[in-house]
Amino acid sequence: MSRRTRLATAMTDAGLWPADSPWVRPAMVEAAPRHLFAPDRLWTWDGHAYVPLDRTAAPDRWTELVYGGPYDSTVTQVTDGLPTSSLSCEAVVADMLDSAMLEPGHAVLELGAATGRNAALMAARTGHGGRVVTVEVDPQLADGARQNLAAAHADVVVVTGDGARGAESYAPFDRVMATYAVDLIPWNWVQQTRPGGRIVTPWGRLGHVALTVAADGRSARGWVQGLATFMPAKGTVAGRPWEDVRGAGEPEEETVVERTDLLRLHKDANLLFALRVVLPEVQIRTEAAEGRIVAWVHDGRDSWTTLVANDGHPTLAYQGGPRRLATELQAAGQDWERSDAPSVYDFGMTCTADHQVVWSGDPNTGRRWSQTSVHEVSGA
């Protein structure tokens, strides 16, 4: 059995092929398989850094990286030691294509061409009567996408430019899909989508949303569709890494934290998503081993906490900086519980020209969890 077939079978066994979009499986397995859009040089983590792996030097290992498991992405570009482009994992690609509700003949705008594969998949659905335009800010990636798409005979236009600006000269579009994460939805995307059209984008690097543009074109609203981790728009300031925020000094405070369920923090995706909504700048990483759970938390600026829980012992918090993040996490978690602990799929978003609001429950009367000005959006 080939690795391509093995991956397709694993997707089937896990129930990951979308039942409402039967076109997705043949498009991903046959029309635009992963290897046709993978560069000869890939990147793999060796435990310390990302190192290159060339197809000519290790063809079997190259194939393993291209056709991993349903939740394995393939890193195709590394810049300054960090991944900056990839072939997304099959499970998330299938889920987002399903969320887009593509139909033959649709005009589609994609933001973030990368290797060109996602655009090719959408073109396989829309057909030659449709129009797929993909925008890529990196000229090198854009050139590679053009070559891959031409070799695959995919009917796609590749534009080198700023994804936040969209592609006004090709608008309006029936569907818009981004393949990189944004915190604030660029209003250009809404303006360039027909009323009733659909925008699918990763939001906040933790989930993806599908928004429908209102009949008057003055807003877009929709629900979170699922969990996914995507790279942010190029040029996004990610904040200081944990090591820099933590520093080498002694903690400023060591306390026992009441009612902090680290096991839930480690395992409950719904809680983690809610914390992302309430504390958008706070980054959380957890690890569990041998009856011990540790959470490393920081705000990307100057505050940090390490939470440690051992079986049968209270949770300890070691903290530094002006904020007490353990207390903030505790309050946010309790607030989430008092709001009936909404799941990922209970959250939604409404965008207008002036504001972006995340809510849970009823779009009109439900709890509003965050509000930001979309005028802060910058190009990426």
Structure description:
Helices cover 27% and strands 32% of the residues. It contains eleven helices and 19 strands. The chain has helices at 3-13, 24-31, 59-66, 90-100, 117-126, 139-151, 187-191, 242-246, 262-267, 269-278, 325-338, and strands at residues 41-45, 50-54, 74-79, 82-87, 107-111, 131-136, 156-160, 173-178, 193-203, 207-213, 219-227, 253-257, 283-289, 292-298, 304-310, 315-320, 347-352, 355-360, 367-373. The chain has a ten-stranded mixed beta sheet, sandwiched between helices. A five-stranded antiparallel beta sheet has the order 12-16-15-14-13. A two-stranded antiparallel sheet has the order 1-2. The two termini are 41 Å apart. 42% of the residues are buried. Mean pLDDT is 91; it is low at 374-380.
Largest sheet strand order:
7-6-5-8-9-10-11-17-18-19
Proportion of helical residues: 25-40%
Number of strands: 19
Stretches where pLDDT falls below 50 for ≥5 residues?
374-380
How would you describe this structure in keywords?
19 strands, globular, alpha+beta, five-stranded antiparallel beta sheet, ten-stranded mixed beta sheet, 27% helix, disordered C terminus, 380 residues
Question: Gist?
Answer:
Helix content is 27%, strand content 32%. The chain has 380 residues and is of the alpha+beta class. Mean pLDDT is 91; it is low at 374-380.
